[in-house]
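BUG: 3D viewer hangs when loading the predicted structure for this chain

Environment: internal workstation, default settings.
Expected: structure renders.
Actual: progress bar stalls at 90%.

Input used:
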Amino acid sequence: MRIRHPRRLVGALGACLALCITTGAQAIPAPGSNRAPADATRITAIAGGIRATVTLGRRAGTAPQAVAPYLYNGWGDPPDPAEVMDATGTGWFTLAFVLDAGGCDPQWDGSRPLTGGADRKTVDAVRARGGDVLPSFGGASGRKLEETCADADALAGAYQKVIDTYRLKAIDVDIEGDTYDDPAVQQKTVDALKKVRADNAGLNVYVTFPSEQDGPDGSMIGRAADSGLEIDGWTIMPFDFDGAGHSMAELTEKATDGLMHRVKAAYGYDDAEAYRHSGLSSMNGITDLNEKVTTSDFESILRYAREHHLARLAFWSVNRDRPCPGAYPDDDTCSGVNQQPWQFSRTFARYTG
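Structure tokens produced before the viewer hung:
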């Protein structure tokens, strides 16, 4: 196509970008049949009679909830989030876990109500300090909404109930074990997240799932890409993969590199963009398989995350982020490794994307 008025076009594009940068204005729909992705923003401006449109895709890795360690009110002597925030600079927490109370009804651990209980108090306490939360749906055990809700619309409705209750800016779906291994459940979850994303402009969506040492299985990433669903941060759990006796920092980096390659292959991103849609959620201290993730490992992981601008940096859990008073009790009340109180949280809180 020949451009008859190149200077006018440049002026229109400049005005368009200025509008985007200075005002954050809502997109003006551009004419024609080509549509931007549902999670992109189109800005249109007119200068010298020339109309120009710029499409801005979602840029992962810079959201404030990029650092949001897990906090669990179900057991493990839940800490006071305000104390952790004041001591570490942590601003966000991933609250675990939303499960099915029966009939596709989302409740904390499938038994604690969304309002009026300890979890609501945690949300209010974090927000009173200027922070925020993202609930995590799923986890390793319990009745998973992803399995029990009848179809994608019902599952999306369960997600939406929690989003509306807390006026959320982000959610996490922790899908593992038999739930992850079921292709039908994967697709149901993908379809539900597509609907949730379409109905909630600006909502950040993270998916957390297990990994092997060379990276995760790519089946759900592929299904999401094939279905047109972009995830802000595909987040692996790089532990419980027979890493005892090895450097968990090195294994974490290797697994996250593997994740990046699977995200790149599925979506057609370049390396940098694939890293920006990849994240990790470690386990501080002694893991279920007796791997040891130390404070030194966290420093190395932080450097790696900064190098690649990862979308998310989390860990299980704040409950464990304390030195043990004696032998490691394996009850999520302490880490089992040498540390200062809240040292793991303090380290990751330095990450800014």
